[in-house]
Amino acid sequence: MGAGPDTAPRATLAMVADAAGVSLPTASKVVNGRGDVASATRARVEEAVRKLGYVPQVGRRSVAPARTVDLVFDELVSPYSLAVLRGVTEAGAENGVDVVVGRIPSESGPVPGADSWANRLKTAGREGLIVVTSELTREQVEGFDRAGLPLVVIDPLNLPRIEVTSVGATNFSGGVSATEHLLGLGHRRIGFAGGPESASCGQARLHGYRAALEKAGVEPDPELTLHGAFGYPDGLEMGIRLLDLDPRPTAVFAASDATALGVVEAARRRGLRVPDDLSVVGYDDTILATLATPALTVVRQPLPDMGRVALRTLLRLAEGDTLDSHHVELATQLVVRDSTAPRGER
User: Fold this and answer.
1) What CATH superfamily classification does 67-169+303-330 receive?
2) Residues 141/164, Cβ–Cβ less than 8 Å
3) CA proximity to 95, closest of 319, 315, 328, 320
4) What is the pLDDT of residues 197-221, one digit of tens each?
5) 235, 228 Cβ separation under 8 angstroms
6) The pTM is what?
7) Domain 171-301 belongs to what architecture?
8) Each residue of 94-133: b (16+ CB within 10 Å) or e?
9) Do residues 299 and 283 make contact, with C-beta atoms less than 8 angstroms apart?
10) Are 298 and 337 in contact (CB under 8 A)?
11) 346 has a pLDDT exceeding 60
């Protein structure tokens, strides 16, 4: 006789993974006796196997599926994104993990649903998700929690919850070092061409800029502080507005390399020479900084290292490890090139 209609369905590896709250590749590693799984995670999977009565199919060799993570950006074509991508993929190759690259998905609007995005990745067997310089909603973060998928954010524009694991750089210190460099060259009227006001990393750079001015006894001038997107068009617009001031700034600290190039172009349109008439400091140290004329003085973010740390952190979370800190900051470094010079007599 065939099985009756009430016969329970055969337990699958996907059901084991779901019951244990782990990814399908992690469950497969436990079932196949792989050693690279945290002991607490292994215990949860083994308990799920016992409760569900999971038995691998007879006659088939159980092979662990390839480990895969998703890496998503708000902007794929920027030099910043390429530097982070290099770090993530290099770390992926070192750890036997495939990296699927894309942009923040959209459904009916610009923001993906709280659960559908996470469930789509879980169904595809992803280890987790790395998000780069993008805004996430609290609902999206909670959707990943419900799906049991780890999430790591690089250089977050916002942190909807303090518990979100993130990797960044010492942005406050970077803002201080850029501004102190300009102050040391004799500049006192220093403009700030910043990122979006909602961006956590941009706010940290702004606070560093203000702290350095105040330490030097220079009162921050609200007219000299502008905000825009991290890109060339907004850098150009902010540069024009700053150079229209009377008196104009003799130096500008820009919150990204692309923003700095926009400021340099604004100076060119005003007939000003960089660095003779205007000193400019950028931020990131992407390939744009060395290709620029003049080559940009910058605060260097260790972008490839940030990508490597994010990938390794995500794998630790997928294996059930407990992190010592939800946020990791890597050190920035001032790199002096040709776009800054001592303040001349005007």
Assistant:
1) Response regulator (3.40.50.2300)
2) yes
3) 315
4) 888 889 999 999 999 999 999 999 9
5) yes
6) 0.78
7) 3-Layer(aba) Sandwich (3.40)
8) eeebebeeeebeeeeeebbbbbebbbebbeebbbbbbbbb
9) yes
10) yes
11) no
